[in-house]
Amino acid sequence: MNYLENLKWRYATKKFDTSKKVSYKDLEKLKKAIQLSVSSYGLQLYKVLIIENIALRESLKHFSWGQNQITDASHLIVFCNYTNVENKHIDGFIELTSKTQDIDITNLNEYGSFIKGKIKQMTQSELFNWTSKQTYLALGNLLNACADLRIDSCPMEGFESEKYNDILGLSEQGLNAAVIATIGYRSFEDYSQNRSKVRKPLNKLFQTL
């Protein structure tokens, strides 16, 4: 399978070639892959920022452990989860479902009420953790799509979320920087690309019951 070979090819790129940029065409493919990601109830309670501005990335680098990927990669991707879920978010999803699947919205109202009821049962902390987890599902799709297109990537948790929120004005939008990724093309100087991929053997990772 080419898919498995592409996954073997990818690695967390540490040094990007600053002269190479992801094309508009490929970037649109990556955006589509993120859009098609699974999410709980299909709500997609997150927003994805694609940051190209170098000056802005320089500011963010300071709060990203000084990692060069932030500025050297073609693009910085910031996955932002909703910090609060309101009825309007559920209503918007129900309306979109009605239009997309050509279903009378009255037939979906009960489902919308069910979702609202489940969400109301969560504490604020549980809600925040739930929405932030959704961003990782989208991140996984981005990484796999990058591998399929032979675009290098690096998922990153080494950053100060609150500082990102301040610089990007996320808090006032009800958003939080949950996880980030850089995409582009590896530099021939990146020592990491020559390392063998370390993964648990199948008989240690899986158990059939």
From TrEMBL:
Keywords: NADP, Oxidoreductase. Residues 7-185 form the Nitroreductase domain. Transmembrane segments: none annotated. InterPro entries: NfsB-like (IPR033878), Nitroreductase (IPR029479), Nitroreductase-like (IPR000415). Pfam families: Nitroreductase. It comes from the Bacteria. SUPFAM superfamilies: FMN-dependent nitroreductase-like. Belongs to the nitroreductase family. This is NAD(P)H-dependent oxidoreductase.
